[in-house]
Amino acid sequence: MSATKELSERRRTRLRFSLRRKALGRPRLSVFRSGKHIYAQVIDDSAGRTVAAASSLDRNLRETLKTGADKSAAAAVGKLVAERALAAGVTAVVFDRGAYMYHGRVKALAEAAREGGLDF
Length: 120
Hints:
Strand content: 15-25%
Oligomer: single chain
Helix content: 40-55%
Largest sheet: 4 strands, mixed
Strand order of the largest sheet: 3-2-1-4
Number of domains: 1
Order of helices and strands: HEEEHHEH
Radius of gyration: 14 Å
CATH topology: Nucleotidyltransferase, domain 5
């Protein structure tokens, strides 16, 4: 495994350990970003299932977005995942940024999810 990938894995593991302690039974809003798209899902770790998910690849978002790899796409995905989570009955989550720094697209997604009604 490359050194960069190993460090990324260590950051992700360290963050998830602290999230499990602080979660208090709340589901986790997990973010994954690639070079072309951004994905978000609300995961109930106690049941081991995904409650709600959204990505810049969703059909209705793909038609309206210029690209899936900018802040506006991240904000749209954040609003959509918040809407779907609220429909599934989830109001409070913990934010799992993975190994990514909290800025740019990750921050835009988080702020849009907060505006959409999720509490974290």
